[in-house]
Amino acid sequence: MPILLVGAQLGFGAMKLDGAVFRDELDLFGQAMMSPLAPLLPMIAVLSGSRSLLASVRSRFVFSARTRVGPRALVNAFLTSGAATAFVPVFIGTAVVGGLVFFGAPAIVPELIDPSVYGITPDELARDAAERVSLSQLLAGGALSYVLGYSLWVGVASAVFATMGNVLILVLPSPLLGFFLPFGVYLAHSVAAGLLDRPEWGALFAVYPFGLVQQPIGAALAPIGIIALFVGGAWLATSLRASHLVSLR
Fold first, then answer.
1. Do residues 48 and 160 lie in contact, with contact meaning Cβ atoms separated by under 8 Å?
2. Closest CA to 181 of 45, 30, 16
3. Alpha-carbon dihedral 155, 60, 178, 244, rounded to 10 degrees
C-alpha cells in the first residue's frame, strides 16, 4: 500500500508539471499532494483499515470470535487494529513522498525549483515558506520536522475515517453502507465548507491545505479534530454496547 500511494502521488504530480517552475520544495510537495487522490483519502483509509472487519462481519467470523474473547474486547481490538492499519500506510506513503521532494528533488531535478522566477531572494524564501500554508509553520524546525509532522497529521486523519467506517460497519444494518459512508461524510463536509466560502473549515483542505491562506495550527487541526471527537465518542458508545450489537450475533 505505501508503494502504491507513493507511486500514485508522484505520478499524478509529474503529470501536472508541464514545464512548471516552483518557488521551493514546499510548492512542489503541494503539487504532488493535491493529486486526484486527495478527495479519496477516506476510501483509501477505509480500504486499508475496514476491509478486515467488513469481511469478518459478512462471513460471520465475528460471531465465533465473540464467544472466545467477549464482545467488548472484540470491538476494541477491531477498531484499534483498523485505525493502525489505516494510519501506517498513509503515514509512510506521505513521508516517503515528502522525503523524495524535500531531500531528493533539489539534487535530481534542480531545474524545477527557482525562487528567483518569483522575485524571492534566498533569505526571504524560508520565512515565506513557513508562513505560506497551514502546518508549514513546522518548517521553522527544518524540512524533516515538517515532513514527519505533516505525514503524522495525514495518517491520523486516515485513522479517524477508518475508525468511522468500522464503527458504522458494526452499528448499521447494512455493513456495506457503513464501509462507504465515510467518503460521503468527507465529501459533504468539504462541500458545505466551500458553500460557506470557508474551504479551510472542510475536511479536504484540513488535510490538504495547499493553495489556501495559512491558518494557526490549532485552527488547521480543528475540522478533523472535531470529527475525531465524534468518532471517539461513537467508539466508546459502541464498545459499551458491544453485547447488544446485531453485527456480532
1. no
2. 45
3. -100
pLDDT of residue 7: 59
Parts of the chain with a pLDDT under 70: 1-19, 63-64, 66, 249
Query: 22-44: per-residue pLDDT in tens?
Result: 889 999 899 888 877 777 777 78
From CA 235, how far away is CA 248, in angstroms rounded?
15
Measured distance CA(239)–CA(72) in Å, rounded: 5
State the Cα torsion 43-96-139-102 to the nearest 10°: -130
Number of H helices, E strands in the chain: 12, 0
Q: Which residues contact 5 (CB under 8 A, 6 or more apart)?
A: 37, 44, 89, 90, 93, 94, 97
Q: How many whole angstroms separate alpha carbon 224 and alpha carbon 63?
A: 33
- Sign, CA torsion 91/38/228/137: positive
All three cell numbers of 83 = 485505525
pLDDT at 13 (0 to 100): 59
Give dist(CA 114, CA 139) in Å, integer. 19
Q: Which residue in this structure is represented by grid cell 456495506?
A: 176
Separation between Cα atoms, residue 107 and residue 177, nearest integer Å: 47
Return d(Cα 98, Cα 76) in angstroms, integer: 32
pLDDT reported for residue 42: 77
The length of the chain is: 249
Other Cβ atoms within 10 Å of 91 Cβ, number: 21
